[in-house]
Specification:
CATH architecture of the largest domain: 3-Layer(bba) Sandwich
Bound molecules: nicotinamide-adenine-dinucleotide
Shape: globular
Strand order of the largest sheet: 5-2-1-9-22-21
Radius of gyration: 22 Å
């Protein structure tokens, strides 16, 4: 019997496993993941602010995968494309006939001095929890230290993750102020962005709405301000300094380091794949999600990395593994965006729904929409019980 190995239990990996298992083809399916749980990476900012608990955004992989799928909880060290094996930290090597690699993303520091040591990234459950402990501990500490930098927060970058984090933060801040007895007028939240634009993927009127919403709640934006160094308690942009004892590092992501460690031809741990999502010269190997650079035929540039695109790629990769197993030709990846939603806390946000010819939404309706999107994701990847338990 042929073996299909799926690496990573994020959006792409979980979707591929489900698709392959439901096809009921006689294959051995093996899912490898370093943690026994899946986490909803689009909700990490809520754990980081403390509006959600880890159990609200996670579920047990073993309970969620269809019957018959083998689950190995172990860390992937590298992939050997020539011998078709995956090297695992504890379990040794695992051979495959077909591979769907969906190992996901890591924080990108662009080599900026001090960013790794002094910034708090939001890339997985551990880092989101570390950011929450740091934020709460620092605010609570102010009562003893009376150091105003304990009340200052700098968010680095103004992309999706930063804006969603800021939205959640301004929502929770009043309750943190009252819990720790803080002087509300001394709280300072700066957002420092290199480019001239905030949330570049949204129309200008929606961006303006989101910016005004956050500014009214105390966020100060600094655009065209590239961060050049991060020191303990200080974010620097050339000679300009932003002092804060909480520094959130959300300036973008790169693919898993396993890609570079395995010797692929990569850039920021992403590999340009073929139209069918396979790796050049390896028709048995498919890359999905943040490690995969899939050229958009319309623009020639790779698609952005989002949960929605990872799921669509997983559908194509799973269909192509099944096609290869049946001796058929694989199909080319095609993507039609459903739309984009950016939350600003639980009760607000901005959204563009592509299905309805760029339907623009803002305000509390987007809070409702985001909840539906999140619930649908948990429901599709696990089951109804998990969805109800996570509410
Ligand atoms: P991003 O690339 O979207 O945003 C990072 C921002 O940081 C950019 O605006 C960039 O200009 C800025 N930046 C980079 N270097 C900087 C520097 N030195 N100084 C100041 N600013 C700097 O990254 P992200 O927000 O981490 O998101 C990662 C991916 O996940 C994206 O593809 C995003 O679309 C996706 N995502 C989607 C959602 C959603 O759909 N709701 C939510 C979160 C993330």
């Amino acid at each position: 019997m042929k073996t299909v190995v799926i690496l990573g239990a994020g959006y792409g990996g979980m979707r591929a496993v489900k698709r392959l298992a439901h096809a009921k083809t006689a294959v051995r399916l093996v899912l490898v993941n370093q943690n026994p749980y899946h986490y909803e990476s689009t909700q990490l900012h809520q754990v980081a602010v403390g509006t959600k608990e880890p159990e609200d955004i996670t579920f047990d992989i073993r309970k969620a995968v269809p019957k018959g799928v083998e689950v190995i909880i172990d860390r992937v060290i590298s992939v050997d494309q020539d011998s078709k094996t995956v090297n695992l930290s504890r379990s040794g090597s695992l051979g495959y006939d077909y591979l769907i690699n969906a190992l996901g993303f890591e924080s990108e520091t662009f080599g900026i001095k001090g960013a790794e040591e002094n910034g708090l990234p939001l890339v997985d459950l551990d880092t989101a929890l570390a950011a929450r402990r740091h934020l709460e501990g620092t605010l609570e500490g102010y009562r003893q230290t009376k150091d105003e930098n304990d009340l200052h927060i700098v968010v680095c970058g103004a992309g999706f993750t930063s804006i969603e984090y800021l939205g959640e933060l301004v929502h929770r801040m009043p309750s943190l102020v009252s819990r720790y007895g803080l002087p509300a007028d001394k709280i300072k939240i700066d957002c420092v962005e290199a480019s001239g634009k905030i949330l570049p993927m949204f129309s200008q009127d929606l961006v303006q709405w989101a910016v005004t919403y956050l500014e009214k709640r105390g966020v100060v934006f600094h655009v065209s301000t590239p961060i050049t160094e991060v020191r303990p308690g200080i974010v620097m942009s050339n000679d300009q300094e932003f002092t804060a004892n909480t520094i959130i590092w959300t300036t973008g992501v790169r693919g898993s380091h396993v890609i570079a460690d395995s010797g692929y031809n990569e850039k920021r741990n992403r590999v340009i794949v073929q139209k069918d999502l396979s790796v050049e010269g390896h028709p048995e190997e498919f890359l999905v999600g943040d490690i995969s650079a899939v050229p958009d035929p319309q623009t020639g540039r790779p698609y952005p990395t989002t949960g929605q695109i990872s799921v669509a790629e997983a559908d194509t990769a799973a269909a192509n593994v099944l096609a290869r197993l049946a001796g058929k030709e694989p199909r080319a990846f095609a993507f039609k965006s459903v739309g984009t939603v950016c939350s600003l806390g639980p009760h607000a946000g901005v959204a563009e729904i592509d299905k309805l010819g760029k339907w623009k939404l803002k305000g509390s309706i987007v809070g409702v929409l985001k909840k539906i999107v999140n619930d649908r994701s948990v429901f599709e990847l696990s089951d109804l019980r998990t969805m109800l338990e996570s509410n």
